[in-house]
Automatic annotation (TrEMBL):
Major localization listed first in the record, in broad terms: membrane
Record's compositionally biased regions (Low complexity): 602-611
Gene Ontology molecular functions: aminoacyltransferase activity
Keyword vocabulary terms for this entry: Cell membrane, Membrane, Transmembrane, Transmembrane helix
UniProt feature coiled coil, ranges: none
InterPro entries: LPG_synthase_C (IPR024320), PG_lysyltransferase (IPR051211), tRNA-synt_2_TM (IPR031553)
UniProt domain Lysyl-tRNA synthetase N-terminal transmembrane region: residue ranges: 26-228
A GO cellular component entry from the record: plasma membrane
Organism annotation: Streptomyces thermolilacinus SPC6
Protein name: DUF2156 domain-containing protein
Chain residue ranges for the region called Disordered: 587-618
Membrane topology, from the record: Multi-pass membrane protein
Length: 618
């Protein structure tokens, strides 16, 4: 079967899949080497720490592994073990620098085998692993991940804590050789001083004192060397959307933006982008914890999607990132799986309201109708306007109010969040606001403003909900009031369709409560309802269902099942539910930081959402 890739029909789908993914055989050698490094590293640490392990029957097997006996050899074994553990993950991810470090470390280990243990077999084993690395050196060509200086601080904290814990194990691993009965504080002081190469208060008989001293000194040296290396190595900053990239994306959205309701969210400025060879399509993404996370469908001409997808997969392979797509449509999922051989999993449904079919009349809308009328009787009024029609001072007041009314300490959002309000480049965006003149309005820095919802453009005749915020002192139901106001004002704005929230596992919740649902479906729905006590999965579905929308399925695209936990964790980081940033004093300043909004990631079933707070999810 052949398909067009930006005008090139010469590459068949299976050929491109093999070129991009290179099949499971390409993963075997790095995985084998990484696993071997992990195992040998653990054995070396055990051999360097526990004397009983070195004297056990397993010692005959350990004899052929890297490590040596005696005070100095214990430190060498411990150092080799820690370094191999640090390199193992990078080798599994095909990282070039991990390969280089291992190529240097293994000959050193072979020399240590011969000089300190006179073990020819151990030296040959190290050289055999070295030969395996050299034989398959082309498999280890992945480029570095985005990184910054603060990782040196993280390494110092983590390695320091690990060295402290392992040091306590080393100090307590020789109970028969300890002189006297030192207290826990003495042992801890001995570890802390030993990491700096200073003799501590704990005394040992025989050569054990030298063994412990060398081992603690080696741990301290490793912590210092790795921290200094990370602090002074060249930076590879996280990619940002440049002004030229943004201009090109806006051109694509002007021609093809009506196809996907998530298209405008590609303009988040903390995303990077790859374009197809013809420039007619693009995929935006962010790299989080080694996962190359795209969101929504590719931007641009559907015929050019395969070219952009191939560029995306090539970039993922070049860095050995795990490719994933969050919240793509059914059409997008079909193209992604067909062009790459990836798999797709349905996560839930997006609620889309056709403006022409929306009405507050009828029994189904009674609750919403009554809530809206009650709030209006309490003196609230609504205004729905384009961003370009708002005065600058009012826009600034809305920005400050949205930031102050945020319900979490950190900004959230990625897949369906733009991260900004009132940017002049987003003049077609729509803002609906609720106002109430009362005594509190006179003292409020935001005047009579009580709630805000923000929509981004969805082609020439649609808009997509991006953010909902309200004053906590305002009456309940502000979100319903403003959504109804926006839907009623949509015809005058030329809007025919409105995308609302994403409902996680909506079909399972809906079908599980129907008569005749099977036991498996009922159990699954019961679990979702139980989790909703903390994560409001069911409440988002019911909130969306109030407006009688049509449901559009959304999918996650992934390489294999074992990647799903990692993708889910990366998505939670991207959405802001897991904060891995350094403490504020150590953050780098500069750039154009995005200010994402509070939303739910489709890859994290445990991601919380509060309709009262206005959460938009992808």
């Amino acid at each position: 079967m052949s398909v067009t890739v930006d005008g090139d029909k010469s590459a068949s789908v299976p050929t491109r899949v093999r070129r991009i993914l290179r099949g499971p055989r390409a993963e075997k050698v790095p995985s084998l080497v990484g696993t071997a490094c992990t195992f040998i590293g653990l054995v070396d640490i055990a051999a360097g720490v526990f004397p009983r392990f070195r004297a056990s029957r397993f010692h005959d097997f350990v004899e052929v592994l890297p490590g040596a006996l005696g005070p100095l050899s214990a430190a060498l074994s411990l150092s080799a073990g820690v370094l191999l553990l640090l390199l193992a993950h990078g080798l599994k991810r095909h990282k070039r620098r991990a390969w280089r470090a291992a190529v240097i470390l293994l000959p050193a280990g072979a020399v240590a085998q011969f000089l300190y243990r006179h073990s020819v077999v151990g030296a040959l084993l190290s050289l055999a692993l070295l030969a395996l690395l050299l034989r398959h050196r082309k498999e280890f060509a992945a480029l570095p991940d985005p990184r910054s200086r603060w990782r040196a601080l993280a390494n110092f904290v983590l390695m320091g804590a690990g060295s402290l814990g392992l040091g306590l194990v080393i100090v307590n691993a020789h109970p028969g050789k300890v002189v006297g009965d030192p207290s826990l504080s003495d042992r801890l002081e001995h570890v802390l001083l030993g990491l700096f190469g200073i003799e501590g208060p704990v005394a040992y008989g025989g050569s054990v004192s030298w063994t412990v001293g060398y081992s603690l000194g080696a741990l301290g040296l490793l912590t210092a060397v790795t921290t200094i290396y990370l602090a002074f190595r060249p930076e590879h900053p996280v990619a940002r959307l440049t002004e030229d990239d943004e201009a090109r994306l806006r051109e694509l959205l002007a021609r093809h933006g009506g196809r996907d309701s998530l298209g405008h969210f590609a303009l988040r400025r903390d995303k990077a982008v790859v374009f197809s060879p013809s420039g007619k399509a693009a995929v935006t993404y962010r790299v989080v914890s080694g996962v190359m996370l795209a969101s929504g469908d590719p931007i641009g001409d559907v015929e050019a999607w395969p070219g952009a997808i191939e560029r995306f997969m090539d970039e993922a392979k070049a860095h050995s990132w795990t490719p994933a797509v969050m919240g793509c449509s059914e059409t997008g999922g079909q193209v992604w799986t067909r062009e790459t051989g990836l798999d797709a999993l349905e996560l839930g449904d997006e609620a889309v309201v056709d403006v022409a079919d929306f009405s507050l009349s009828g029994r189904a809308m009674r609750n919403v109708r009554q809530m809206v009328k009650r709030i209006e009787r309490n003196g609230y009024e609504t205004r729905v306007r384009r961003v370009r029609d708002l005065p600058d001072d009012e826009l600034e007041r809305m920005r400050r109010a949205a930031a102050d009314w945020r319900g979490t300490d950190t900004e959230r959002g990625f897949s369906m969040a733009l991260g900004r309000i009132g940017d002049p480049a987003d003049g077609d965006a729509v803002i609906a606001t609720a106002h109430k003149a009362d005594d509190a309005a006179d003292s409020s820095p935001y005047g009579d403003l009580k709630a805000i919802i923000h929509f981004v453009p969805w082609g020439p005749d649609g808009m997509s909900l991006e953010l909902m915020r309200r004053d906590r002192s305002a009456d309940p139901g502000m979100n319903e009031l403003l959504i109804v106001a926006a839907l009623q004002a949509a015809p005058s704005l030329g809007v025919a369709r409105v995308s609302l929230n994403f409902a996680m596992f909506r079909s399972a919740l809906a079908r599980g409560e129907k008569l005749g649902a099977g036991p498996v479906l009922r159990v699954w729905r019961g679990l979702l309802v139980f989790l909703s006590r903390w994560f409001q999965i069911e409440s988002l579905y019911k909130f969306n269902a109030k407006f009688q929308p049509r449901w559009e399925p959304r999918f996650v695209v992934y390489r294999n099942t074992r990647d799903l936990p990692r993708i889910g964790f990366a998505a939670m980081q991207a959405e802001g539910f897991v904060n891995m940033t350094p403490p504020r004093p150590f953050r780098r300043r500069g750039g154009r930081p995005a200010q994402p909004c509070a939303h739910i990631t489709p890859a994290s079933p445990a991601a919380p959402a509060a309709p009262e707070q206005g959460m938009r999810a992808a």
